[in-house]
Amino acid sequence: MNKLLRIIFSVYLLMTSFFLDAQKLDKPEVYYGINFGMTASQIYFSPSVNQNYLTGYNGGVIFRYIGDKSLGLQTELNFSQRGWKETDNLYTKQLNYIELPFLTHFNFGNKFRFFFNVGPKISYLISEKILTNNTNGATDYQYSKGVENPFDYGFCAGLGCLMNIKGQVFQLEGRGAYSVSNIFSDAKKDYFDYSNNLTASVNFSWLIQTQ
């Protein structure tokens, strides 16, 4: 796992370095906008916990800078609902995060474009809420503990398409995210070896091109 993460991070740094050396547009494109959509999430528990996907909301603001014909940088500030929903409607907990992705943005086309975003993200838990509890007083670790590590970090990648109509951009993106950090303590004495956020999302965005 650590080897894979090093490879992903190295590829991201390589793409970012390429962007810094390839700012070839005479007039870079700058965009500001908003995005909103839905999430479907689970927690990767080890030992495992049987789950279905928990749906929620996410959305926020976007800044995008394109300095090359098909390459740019994008950052966002989002509110994201995650968590887990155990099978048979046994237990559901919602986790509300503020997240900050730092993305390399690849695009292909002109007024109509396909694009690919990839990069790291950091998040911080602002609240948690039990939505369902039919455990009948069970004392399993995930029921008796709140989130122990509110700071969250990982990687995300997304595919989408957009239409630029006289400087107004309308886009749709599907994105997946994996958190390297655990929501519960992972010391040798603790029950869970892993408790990572796994999130998929679909977002609609509206951006305005300022130059």
Overview of this structure, please?
By secondary structure, the chain is mostly beta strands. The protein has a single domain, classed as Beta Barrel (Porin), CATH 2.40.160. 11% of the residues lie in helices and 64% in strands. The chain is built from 2 helices and 9 strands. It starts with a helix and ends with a strand.
Write the layout of secondary structure elements.
Elements: H1 2-20, E1 29-46, E2 51-52, E3 54-68, E4 71-86, E5 91-109, E6 112-133, H2 141-144, E7 151-165, E8 168-179, E9 194-209
Antiparallel strand pairs: 1-3, 1-9, 2-4, 3-4, 4-5, 5-6, 6-7, 7-8, 8-9
Strand content: over 45%
Number of helices: 2
CATH class type = Mainly Beta
Mean pLDDT figure? 90
Please state the structural category. Answer: mainly beta
- Give me the Rg, rounded: 19 Å
How many distinct domains?
A: 1
Query: Any idea what the CATH architecture is?
Result: Beta Barrel
CATH topology: Porin
User: Strand-and-helix sequence, N→C?
Assistant: HEEEEEEHEEE
Q: Percent helix among the residues?
A: 10-25%
Q: Taking strands numbered 1, 2, ... along the chain, how are they ordered across the largest sheet?
A: 1-3-4-5-6-7-8-9
What global shape is seen? elongated
Q: Strand count, sense and closure of the main sheet?
A: 8 strands, antiparallel, barrel
Quote the distance from N terminus to C terminus. Answer: 42 Å
Uncertain segments: none
Structure keywords:
211 residues, mainly beta, Porin, 8-stranded antiparallel barrel, 2 helices, 9 strands, 64% strand, elongated
Briefly summarize what is shown.
With 211 residues, this protein is mainly β. The protein has helices at 2-20, 141-144, and strands spanning 29-46, 51-52, 54-68, 71-86, 91-109, 112-133, 151-165, 168-179, 194-209. An eight-stranded antiparallel barrel has the order 1-3-4-5-6-7-8-9.
